[in-house]
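Q: Convert this sequence to structure tokens.
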Amino acid sequence: MSDDALKVLLVEDDSDDYAIFERMLSKIDGLQYDLEWRPSFAEGQTAIAENQYDVIFMDYRLGEYNGCELLQFAKENRCLAPIIFLSGECSSEIYKEIKKLGALNYLNKDEITPNYLAIAIDYAIEIAAQYERLKKIAAHDGLTNLLNHQEMYTMLTREIDRSRRYGTFLSMIMFDVDNFKMINDSYGHLVGDNVIRWLADLMRKSSRNVDINARYGGDEFVIILPDTKGQSALMKASHLCSAISKEPYTSYGQSVPVTISAGVAELCEGDTKEMFIEKADGALYLAKSRGRNCVYFK
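A:
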């Protein structure tokens, strides 16, 4: 497939209808596309599971199967592409059914023209782009652009499942800013917000591509470390703690001393997500109780 071309999947059990659809696509001015045709329900399932298409068209009738079953399969497999149904039938009941299940549109095969198809594709791409923008906004913290609390939980669940499935290590660092209230009271909330942004930038700069950085809430942060033993996570947390304490944040010519306390936990057999978080949080509490500006591994 070409990287720049629109990746289109057609699940259609009639070869004549496939040929007509391909011909319509080819007549759309300026459209670069890679079309993949799957002529059966089972082959459609396999293709959808790959989750690599920009838009999916599927016939409402697929042999003994109903296209809604394939749409349901797509939802269960977290298919991200907008799905448009094609059918020779024109029924408000069918339209209501497929819209309820999450299909974007429903096109009558007998009425499709290149222009009609181009409009449907443009609409699908725009809706998909809007969805991605909204999804990103919903998953990220507005101040730092790190993952937010809820998305952190989602990613942690995924990483715990992955660790269990493949027998890999998984560790977590939880840290917060020492005496953050004092920073807000002494320098103002604007400076406090800037300190939070500054810490988020330091997290990103010191992280691997696979690391997952999140703002847990307030001045508290979490770093999820896939394929990482607890001792390695402890070293990373210690390095971050030391780097922050040696580099005061500067705001409007003022030097603002910032330190953090961090707790480190490694996922152990039998740990639930809640237990894993509780271990990291407990380690953070112990780091705080030992004088702050330090790291504790529990």
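The chain has ten helices and 14 strands.
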